[in-house]
Amino acid sequence: MVIRLNLTRLTPRLALAVGGIAGCSLLVVIIISRFVTGTLSDDRIAVTRDMLQVPIEYFPSSPRLNARMAAAELSEGDRDLRKAEAWAQRAVNLSPNDYRFRLTLASIKEAGGDRLAAEESLESAISLAPHYWSVHYRLGNLLVREGKLTQSLEQFRLAVTANAELLPGTLDLLWRASRADVNTVQTAVGSDPKARLTLAQFLLKMSRPVEAASVFSSIDRSDRMASPQESSAFLNSLIAAGKLETARNLWVDFTGTEKQSALIWNGGFESDISKKDFTQFEWVFGRTEYARFAIDAEVAHTGSRSLRIEFAGRDTTQLDNEIRQLVPLQPGRQYRLDFYARSSGLETPEGPRVVVTDSVLSKWIAASEPVPRGSNDWQHFTVDFVAPANANGNAVGIDISIKRKPKFSYDEPTRGTVWFDDFSVTER
What we know:
The chain is α+β, with helices and mostly antiparallel strands. Helices cover about 45% and strands about 20% of the residues. The chain has 15 helices and 10 strands. β6 and β7 (about 365) form a beta hairpin.
């Protein structure tokens, strides 16, 4: 038997098979290469200098492996900064458009004491990634360490505008670096309303209430309204800092209510009462099991409305601060509180009274006579008192509240209705 081979037809097929095997082999190499370089260059995976030695010999042209080797060298206890810089520079040369490798190079340059070269590297990174806040933040920090505070402010402004979580730490850093210069921190914050609210809170925390109030008032009212919780928190902080007059003026401007010359706000209950965030200088209503409170549009001493209290008929009735208003007054001066009260079917061991209390110490300063039992038409009450002293001369806060305190651990139920109207405080 004779076997004949047709090499003319076999050769193309053999070449095709060899080419396929070579292509598959190349594909396998590429897959392995990408797997190795991708895994070892992943920042989430901790690698050491020794772990990278063999892979980088196999894949010397991988910019990511070179950059990872540079970072690993930098983190070693016996690091060689010259080798680290060589690895980083090689990564930059292999991939000149990847900003991340320039960040690594900047870290190595600064570690070696060459902050100017580190600055240049970070500026190159910014030119490649101008919208990445992290690069701006790093450059800003480097400039501060170089003593170039003014140049750093724009970098910080761009960073905190893109990432608001950076703002508290940035304010603290710049405050210390500038030796408490308000203009410096204002420049870094820029014009973003929420950032300026944070700045106002920060300045208040740093005992700069005048500047804090100035920043707060510079924010457009609509922007303040868009952040009610933050705005309300600022007013509360201003009150806690003892700046009651400033807080009240800002409160009036913020709430958009018509400015009143009266020391007590809405003493006749003619305006609607805020029930949400901005009750700092308005009547504040709480809840109690002993009575119900309401604005009565049918009964009034003057105007068209009054405050109505309907007692629930429970024994040992107690009212404390369920109805109150904070009033700023000048320290040490004499004042008179006037109001009117009416009752219907009031049965009680002792009626409610209006009390003037030190808002800081919660100490009674003065109190009215109790509203008499029975059914009585409108009666005029007065309370003379002296505002608490204040060594720094700032306004002091007093609470005007309606209270009923049982004389004993048990007393008879209180039932019936009482109305209050036309509260006013005047200096004597």
